[in-house]
Amino acid sequence: MAEITAQAVKELRDLTNLPMMEVKRALTEANGDQKRAIEILKEANKKVSIKRAENATSEGLIRTGVSADGSCAAMVEIQCESAPVAKADDFVFLADQCIKQLLTGPGATTADQLMVQAAPDRPGQTLAGLLEEVVGKIREKMVVARVLVVKGPAGAYAHHDGKTGVLFCASGENKSAAVLRDVAMHIAGLKPTVTHPEELPAADVAAERTLLTTEAAKSGKPANILEKIVDGRMKTYFAEQGVLGYQMFAKDDSKTVNQALAENGLKAASFTRWVLGN
Description:
Number of strands: 6
Helix content: 40-55%
Mean pLDDT: 91
Largest sheet: 3 strands, antiparallel
Shape: elongated
Structural class: alpha+beta
Oligomer: single chain
CATH topology of the domain at 59-151: Tetrahydropterin Synthase, Chain A
Order of helices and strands: HHHEEHHHHEEEHHHHE
Low-confidence stretches: none
CATH class of the domain at 59-151: Alpha Beta
Distance between the termini: 53 Å
């Protein structure tokens, strides 16, 4: 039986960041062989995942990011069992590594596609391997629930509690405009339902226009004036129905979202708003 020195335990603990007693136990089982001890620790981490497989993951974190050149934006949701874990440094690091890889790697449309890719700041380790490592340290079930990447111009925002995230896409050439993030923040708070009026039920829109036209006609004003009146009231209707572009801009309510974007040479294209677990 090889002697397990304090130095050997320290070296393996520095490599794995796992509890000292677990590291010593693995070295003892491996007869002092560090590589074998690491494999033993990895197997133990997998057993933790299996043991907790049926546990509910009702907490977690939504993280977002935009590439340095504004060419794309990404969002990821990672779920865990308890609220404190969602704020743990290792858990946040895992989420940030997922975002970094989504922004700089080949892309992914599913969590499975992403997790087989490299962890950007961990040479030789995949994101799946990093997930196993974090599970081993924290001892909770964790699930990379969903991922999303969109092309720029785009804005991204995640609420400070990590439970709401938004990606907003625009059309135009200005990929670095601050208004992109501002609109994403607006979406998180004001919860629009659609981006454009055309996405509302056509029958409802037609019925509202008919109603407003009938009411306006009672004024006896010329047809061209009536049309402008109805168009103005339809804008109010669209805002009330949650059409993003017609809502008053949260950062400056003297203008609509469409107007704020137009000032920067942009138009609203689409958005995705996630709420943790939904």
